[in-house]
Amino acid sequence: MKSLKVFAPATVANLSCGFDVLGCCLEGVGDEMRISLSDTSGVRITKIEGADLPLATNKNVAGVAVVAMLEALNDTSTGIDIEIYKKIKAGSGIGSSAASSAGAVWATNQLLGKPFTPKQLVKFAMEGERLASGNAHADNVAPALLGGFTLVRSYAPLDVLKLNTPKNLYMTIIHPQIEVKTADSRKVIKSNVPLNKAVTQWGNLGGFITGLFTSDYELLGRSLDDVIIEPLRSILIPKFKEVKAIAIKNGALGAGISGSGPSIFAMSKGKETASKVAKAIEKVYTPTGITFDIHVAAINAKGVSEII
Ligand code: HSE
User: Is the domain of 99 the same as that of 237?
Assistant: First the structure.
């Protein structure tokens, strides 16, 4: 095998109660990439379509992720060429940089005969996140690589767990076309958390994970609450409160900021409800004059996958 075309999926990180630790992978929303072995050693970004992103390997998230992987193998002879066909916009809040880093390391791993497990690839893809946002968080790259819902139980040492996905869970995502850089959106949050808020947050995180494993949709809904990050970041997102309220009024289990925003997610039981929620959100957003995309997506159980 000399070349591989992959689907690199979008992801929703944080999921309200799990800042930097919780995330899930979306079906049908994502980028395409072609990764090829080359006779010339080193890692090159040979083509980018759909976005104005750097071609220089050390400035491109896919480039640095694959370099980190080859370094871990002490491999100085392999040549890798990367073509990126972006569909997820940078600064959208649905894991644009994570999709590129995860797609690149997953495909390279396949081409090299799978020296790493998908879990082991997470730390290389995190290097892309470090470049993109100044922080090597794993809550987008882990679900992009493992599929479904994932939890980063620990960063040091890195311990990533794949969680359960209830069958009938759907996401509605609105992406207002304003760019909120993760690096900027991380500057508005505080590094100290009052104990009473931490108690609320970790109670909800435990509740959410229990809900995933017991397919208790009501529990998932009441656990989708963020008393720490959302109050600070939501002011960067036009109509956040209205979107959240209308989503819940139309049957969503809960709603919140997708990753670092500006996308907003609503989680629903059943595709019909998720589509109804999408229509209701559309009505709230159209009068703002801000261009937006809306996706209704199932949870992607596989993560990055080969396009045949
Ligand atoms: N956990 C990260 C953040 C995700 O909220 O900054 C970025 O998509």
Answer: no
* Pairing verdict, β 264-269 and 169-176: antiparallel
- Cα 277 to Cα 252: distance, rounded to the nearest angstrom: 7
Q: Which residues line ligand 1 (CB under 6 A)?
A: 13-14, 19-20, 95, 137, 139-140, 182, 186, 259-260
303, two tokens: 């993560």
In this prediction, residue 36 carries a pLDDT of 98
Global pTM value: 0.97
The distance from CA 215 to its chain's CA centroid, rounded to whole angstroms, is 22
Residue 134, domain extent: 3-163+301-306
CB-CB contact of 37 with 78 (8 Å): yes
Taking the centre of ligand 1 as the mean of its atom positions, its distance from the CA of residue 76, in whole angstroms, is 33
| Residue 259 alpha carbon, nearest atom of ligand 1 | 8
Query: What confidence category does residue 43 fall into, taking pLDDT thresholds of 50, 70 and 90?
Result: very high
For 73-128, write each residue's pLDDT tens digit: 999 999 999 999 999 998 899 999 999 999 999 999 999 999 999 999 999 999 99
What are the tokens at 153?
A: 């139980």
List strands edge to edge, sheet with 264-269.
Answer: 254-257, 264-269, 169-176, 292-298
**CATH classification of the domain holding 273:** 3.30.70.890
Give the residues across from 170 on adjacent strands.
Answer: 268, 298
